[in-house]
Amino acid sequence: MSQFYTSTDHFVLLPAIMLAIFGCAVLLLDFLFPEPKQRKVLALLVLAGLFFSGIGLWRQYSFLTSQGISEITAFRGTLTVDSFALFFNGIFIAVAALVAIVSYRYLELEGEHRGEYYGLILLAQTGMYFLATGTDLVTLFVGLETMALSFYILVGFLRGDKRSNEAAIKYLLLGAFSSGFLIYGFSLLYGISGSTKLRDIGAAIVSRDLWDPLVFMGLTATTVGLLFKISAVPFHMWAPDAYEGAPTTVTAYLAVGSKAASLAFLMRMFLGPFWNMKEIWEPMLIVIAVASMTLGNLAAITQNNVKRLLAYSSVSHAGYMLLGLIAGNETGIKGMMVYILVYTFMTLGAFLVVVGLRRMDVIGDDVDDLSGLMYKSPGYAVLMLIFMLSLAGIPPTAGFIGKYFIFLSLIQTGHYVLAVIATLYVAVAIYYYFRIVRSMFIADLVDKAPLASSVGLRVGLYITGALTLAIGVYPEPFLRMAQVSFGR
Amino acid sequence: MHPIGTVHYLVLSVALLLIGTFGVLTRRNIVVILMSIELILNAANINLIAFSRAVDNVNGQVFAIFVIAVAVAEAAVGLGILIALFRNKETVLADEVDLLKW
Q: What is the average per-residue pLDDT within A475-480?
């Protein structure tokens, strides 16, 4: 190994190499399976890739704990493996595995069961790895774009479907626009510090005047780009359209994977180089968090499309997560990480139920398509009830734990008004989540045809449902994970 | 007479950024919107190169090459999706793409 690629570098890069190799392998091996039915094998290949990547992560984790060190840096500070990175990469792997196993039946129904789908899942995953691990502007930017480009294609995966085309083009235009702002902000940050490493940028920002116009513009442009990616108001316009038009399995992956990765990126920036400018960005983020909760919750009330409703709900969840950053104490950051973990599984679960409703001639994403679900397939209805309770934040489900720590941190740091506003919007949220519940349990059964379920989908639903309950009932181990991961 | 310095490049890049943003927000044709996005990315590239010269290290130039590569990939994917859209809808005008709305 040369000085440019040491064994430490290899050790840190290995999980991403595995993901990329298997991603390309899926693309290449696609031609071996001319029949759509056979392409389930590719889903197994995705699982294998994730498994090997997971082994790499596990070795990094055991290395960290056995040596008692807090981080491994590689490529001269370009990549950093710490418990923060491991926490997020663990979430990403779980999400990608769940999405891979639930997709095949859905894609067959859509008539688009092609190998590229699985390849793109792994390639998006590669980008996410760099978003959680990168501590250099170039790495973070390339990681973000690797993920985003894969998602643009995945959102438009149903080539013959006008809604999917439209969702993809809207997502691409706004996503590329926001990356433009992000990269402009990055160029200014580079100008301030003369380095692309987050650590040097942080040091350069400290040595400057807080209201230096260059610093301020760099911060603002970068923040705009980041907020676009996590779909916070007023940069959320793409989210409902992209979520509604995309194939539902992709919507699930987009809502959960892309959002968690972008939040990891956002936390790296704000807890790293931007931390000392808190007095500048705190008011900005307060406005954005309140606007996200307001618009997300109020717009969700009038939606009749479940995917669109969940999109607005995910906008409001982005607002709640930002509150943890605004509080900024240890409880707040821990709360934010727990919230991301919880959000991942409950949102994924809710979208998987919608995936299950897709049948030959029914899209299944309307609230009315859920009516009387209790009488048709009680298992799905009960699971959906759990996810809805959790999304609304009602104990004993996981959503309550997430909100609890966020509210606690707000009270600890004296943001009483914000805490009250956030609590009031929970009440609004209960209203629209329970429209779905009411439709499932009280409304008459209209469509008696059985659901087109699959083994993979059922497994995915059981896992997300079990985790959503488990985190709510026995949160200790999950809290410890988030605790360990908090190391600024 | 002052020689051309970093500030001049910054003014140029801000101008490009504003022109690009204006284009994205006002143009109807999706191809023109994609071109406007390229303008924004190139504004960042000018910044990176100018700063690279000013602080006298090569990181910014390397970053600019990455940005160019990403911009190309983005344009390729964007035009691919646009072609898929055009096959189904026979339009490249952003305001006629209106199936999804609240």
A: 87
Residue A488's pLDDT is what?
A: 45
Give me the residues paired with residue A81 across strands.
A72
Residue A487 pLDDT more than 70? no
pLDDT mean over A336-362: 89
Chain B positions in Cβ-Cβ contact with residue A302 (cut-off 8 Å):
102
Residue A61 lies in a domain: no
Give the HSE-up count for residue A93: Cα atoms under 13 Å, Cβ half-sphere: 23
**Domain tally for chain A?**
1
The answer to whether position A176 is within a domain reads no
CA distances from A430 to A269, A292, A345, A353, B102 (A): 33, 17, 19, 19, 21
Number of separate domains in chain B: 1
Between these two residues, A306 and A362, which has the higher pLDDT value?
A306
Cβ-contact A148, A175 below 8 angstroms: yes
pLDDT 10s digits, B28-70: 999 999 999 999 999 999 999 999 999 989 999 999 999 999 9
Distance from CA of A417 to the nearest CA of B (A): 30
In a domain, A228, yes or no: no
Q: What share of chain B is helix, strand, coil (3-state, %, to 5)?
A: 80, 0, 20
Residue A316 lies in a domain: yes
The pLDDT tens digits of the residues spanning A215-270 come to 999 999 999 999 999 999 889 989 999 999 999 999 999 999 999 999 999 999 99
**Nearest-angstrom CA–CA distance, A168 and A148:** 11
Q: Of the candidates A168, A183, A302, which has its C-beta nearest B81's C-beta?
A: A168
- For residue B34, give its domain range: 28-90
Q: Do A159 and B62 touch (CB under 8 A)?
A: no
- The one-character DSSP state at A136 is B
Of A167, A183, A194, which has the smallest distance from its Cβ to B44's Cβ?
Answer: A183
| Tokens coding A256 | 């959960």
Of A385, A475, A376, A401, the residue nearest A433 (C-alpha): A385
Is residue B46 in a domain?
yes
| Cβ atoms within 10 Å of A269's Cβ, excluding its own | 25
Residue A103 burial by CB count (10 A; 0-12/13-18/19+): exposed, middle or buried?
buried
Spatial CB neighbours of A69, under 8 Å, sequence gap ≥ 6? none
- Low-confidence winner among A42-51, A152-161, A443-452, A467-476 (lowest mean pLDDT): A443-452
Cβ neighbourhood burial of A392 (10 Å; 0-12, 13-18, 19+):
buried
Cβ neighbours of residue A227 closer than 8 Å, sequence gap 6 or more: A235, A288
Of B51, B81, B100, the CB nearest to A187: B51
B30 touches chain A (CB under 8 A): yes
